[in-house]
Amino acid sequence: MGMNSRIEAAIAQAVAVGQGRGAVPQRLSSALGYATAPGGARIRPTILTSVALACGDDQPKLTDAAASALELIHCASLVHDDLPCFDDADTRRGKPSVHKAYSEPLAVLTGDSLIVLAFEILARQSGLAPDRVAQMILILSQRTGMPGGICAGQGWESEAEIDLSAYHQAKTGALFIAATQMGAVAAGQEAEPWFELGARIGEAFQVADDLRDALYDADTLGKPVGQDDLHGRPNAVTLLGVQGAISRLKDILGGAIASIPSCRGEAQLADMVRRYAERLTPVAPNVAASRSNV
Amino acid sequence: MGMNSRIEAAIAQAVAVGQGRGAVPQRLSSALGYATAPGGARIRPTILTSVALACGDDQPKLTDAAASALELIHCASLVHDDLPCFDDADTRRGKPSVHKAYSEPLAVLTGDSLIVLAFEILARQSGLAPDRVAQMILILSQRTGMPGGICAGQGWESEAEIDLSAYHQAKTGALFIAATQMGAVAAGQEAEPWFELGARIGEAFQVADDLRDALYDADTLGKPVGQDDLHGRPNAVTLLGVQGAISRLKDILGGAIASIPSCRGEAQLADMVRRYAERLTPVAPNVAASRSNV
User: Fold this and answer.
1) Beta-bridge partner residues of A92
2) Closest approach of chain B CAs to the CA of A132, in angstroms?
3) Binding-face residues of A in 144-173 toward B, CB within 8 A
4) How many A×B Cβ pairs under 8 Å?
5) What residue spans of chain B are helical by DSSP H?
6) Distances, alpha carbon A102 to alpha carbons A15, A109, A117, B83, B155, in Å
7) Cβ distance B116 to A144 under 8 Å?
8) CB A104 within 8 A of CB B104
9) What does the alpha-carbon distance between residue B53 and residue B268 come to, in Å, rounded to a whole number?
10) Within 10 Å of residue A157's Cβ, how many Cβ atoms?
11) How far apart are CA A263 and CA A224, in angstroms?
12) Rounded distance, CA A275 to CA B271, Å?
């Protein structure tokens, strides 16, 4: 089974646990499936699984539980972020958002249920390796909640003054740090040496996002590049320009590859980061030329 | 330290972990404190701690972590239930609800953060007894999420047809079952024998709630008793009348006491249930007369 199929199977199995059978509230049960499939790129579980494989993947069930738990948290965050009181998004991944398709109460409950399910899925594997599972639950909770997880990241958006470094690490970096650290722990390795890889992938994601926004605007809307920062927050393109941001992206990804701890699958993991870099880098004429060096 | 102070101290310590220090989003941090203190009766952690004490309470830190985790989940559920898309409640425990005091986005994030914090607080104690902690995380997740926890209980309210037994057990019973089972597991005992005590306390809570509604209406609103079921769902008073419901409450609590598994603190625990029964039973002339027999 390829990695994508493995990850999809693990997520589907996890969601089925939450959906239940028999006397269950059918609409909420259905919404759990709707919110999690078909998925996006499954980037976070892919990174997690790649790190676990690089570390030997001696307990594949732990890896699968960790990968699906992480994706459930990501999906939950999308459902809640789409709510009318946040982004008020009518669509997500080309279909109506959960609150549009099911109702706002069911969207709140879908997010809540997916968060809880993530921890259940991990706890269910405790018999295999209680210490690893406990550590993964701790990592996942700290990268999801307050004061340093994605909840904190969203929380910064309600502040008058934003600590940009704390904001970006919580909002974008947190689940990538969880990905690399949980992947290592699932395979019996220490979490700490894997922090930097996750943090740098998170940074790269942020810069790539800024680039995509800027190029998208310039190409399709005719809006001047570098003036799209409606929220008054600096981004890589406004600070560095397009070429500068592309250089920055390459530097970050170079740093990410250099940070990979010594492990048996180090070379393949570096390849994975390079492939991931290609996915991250926006397709635009002046960008395509730089790609082969990333 | 008395049990109330012990529980309050544990909850305050848990909330402080989520609030963090330094570069944290201050309003969300503040909302976590606002949503959790001052608390209500802290019934669920009191039951949990009482069961742990009856079982020997050989790892008090586990008991405290479990009690505070359970209360965090309960507080999270109140914050989300008060949201405009659910009960649209302006006040809670005599002060503005979280979305009124802070904003709707911060109320969603407060609930999410408290759910996540509950699992973090448990996972942090894993070093003391990894197996007990893993089992408590499993119990708490199953009694909180889908398909059988309080999320499912709320989810039933979006269904055209409600399975009443599944609905009541998920909506009201779930966190009482978590209370008795987590209390036992915190002290190194099996969870299963403690299911019935939690389930019966949950049932008693439901009947007491129906009674309170009915008596409150009759005394203060002049609304005929037994006609207040706006949602078309049967309740104990409409089914049995006030005296019948009081009899039913006494039967359930008698059954609860009879179900207490053999343990060193069995007698004190039975006393706790009796005291709890007095708190549950509404104060009304025709009810006060029945109290001494509960």
Assistant:
1) A95
2) 10
3) 144-149, 151-152, 154-159, 163, 165-166
4) 210
5) 3-19, 26-36, 43-54, 60-81, 98-101, 104-123, 130-144, 150-156, 164-168, 174-186, 195-216, 236-259, 266-280, 285-291
6) 17, 11, 19, 17, 11
7) yes
8) no
9) 9
10) 17
11) 45
12) 65
ipTM score of complex: 0.92
Kindly list the residues from chain B whose CB atom is less than 8 angstroms away from the CB atom of residue A103. Answer: 85, 158
Q: What is the pLDDT along chain A (294 residues), one digit of tens a residue?
A: 799 999 999 999 999 999 999 999 999 999 999 999 999 899 999 999 999 999 999 999 999 999 999 999 999 999 999 999 999 999 999 999 999 999 999 999 999 999 999 999 999 999 999 999 999 999 999 999 999 999 999 999 999 998 888 998 999 899 999 999 999 999 999 999 999 999 999 999 888 888 888 887 555 544 444 443 445 566 888 889 999 999 999 999 999 999 999 999 999 999 988 887 777 776 554 444 444 444
Report how far residue A196's alpha carbon sits from residue A203's, in angstroms, rounded to the nearest whole number: 10
Nearest C-alpha in B relative to A15:
B146
Instruction: Check residue B157 and report its DSSP letter.
Output: T
DSSP state for residue A21 in the 8-state scheme: S
Cα B170 to chain centroid, rounded: 11
CB-based contact, A30 to chain B, within 8 Å: no
Q: Which amino acid is at B161?
A: E
**In this structure, what are the phi and psi dihedrals at residue A95, rounded to the nearest 5 degrees?**
-135, 165
The whole-angstrom separation of Cα B48 and Cα B66 is: 8
Residue A108 CB-density burial (10 A; 0-12 exposed, 13-18 middle, 19+ buried): buried
CB A202 within 8 A of CB A172: yes
Task: Please tell me which residue of chain B has the smallest CA distance to A25.
Answer: B156
Say how many CA atoms lie within 13 Å of B29 toward its Cβ: 16
Torsion sign (Cα): B155, B158, B164, B168: positive
> Number of helices (H) and strands (E), helices first, in chain A?
14, 2
